[in-house]
Predict the 3D structure of the following.
Amino acid sequence: MRFLSFLTIAVLIASVMAPAAHAAEPILIRFSHVTSENSPKGQGAVMFKRLAEERLAGKVKVEIYPNSQKFDDNQAPLGLLFGDIEMAAPSLSKFRAYSKKMQVFDLPLLFSDIDALHRFQQSRAGKALLDSMITRGIKGLTYWDNGPRVISAKRAIKQPADAKRLVFRIEASAVFQEQYARVGAVGIEMPFKRLPDAMKEGLISAQENAWSNIRSMQVHKFHNHFTELGHSYLGYMVITSAAFWNGLPADVRTQLEAILKEVTDKVNSLAAEQALSARQEVLQSGAKLVELSEADRRAWRDALTPVWKRFENEIGSDLISAARASN
Ligand code: SIN
């Protein structure tokens, strides 16, 4: 009898304790990315953590892994699918394996400026791309900016012929491979974190990136000529695993979506500011900006826009037309 009442009390205590322990456990969101904490994306992750932990106090805990600490961009989607992380924000150029349509963002000289890119991202076609990897278990949550890609080398690249025989570090993009092949250069796909060593060891003689990444990777210590061709924009898709996102309590999901919306506006303003400040800093260090005439720009247009046709079947001519309509 005494034993039975002891058992009853023990069961009672356990049943009271268990749900309490469970309710106290916040949902862990591990956010992995490859740039520094100060980059627009790095700051976006920090803002997201702050707002999520403030507004969903006790319900959500966010851990940030910057500087490729956990994953390179090409490993991040698998990391999500295996449950090693819950969020990432790879460059738009890193999704080819998951959706060929995403290559639309890589097509050279497709968008007339960053406002056109934004219009496309907010259009029906652009929003549909957030769900273009859903059958692979990846859900796009929002787009974040970095800035226009700028070409750099030890010599001035003014005309397409100036790029001949240069070896470019590029992101893992078939479009970028084709783009540089068309001007007689070679593109080597390489993770972002390898860029400084690749320049130091002389493995590459040229590269392209946004000004803030050029500054953080100290590209100007190795390359002193910078060409603002306006051929493409470095931007990101904030992604998660569809299974994780759909499994969140509805109120948490709704709040996180609202937070991401707010953070997106801040990231994009910060990206615009950093594009200017990093540019200024790099140029003040003695690096030179290559001046392009109208004839130079025409020559690049003639050299690069045939790349669109080569990828038309993979991307879809309707999607390319939708992107062009945003100009
Ligand atoms: C990034 O900004 O996420 C890195 C892009 C790159 O690989 O160059």
In short: Residues 34-35, 91, 146, 171, 192, 209, 213, 234 surround succinic acid (CB under 6 Å). Residues 196 and 217 are 6 Å apart (CA to CA). The first strand starts at residue 27 and ends at 32.
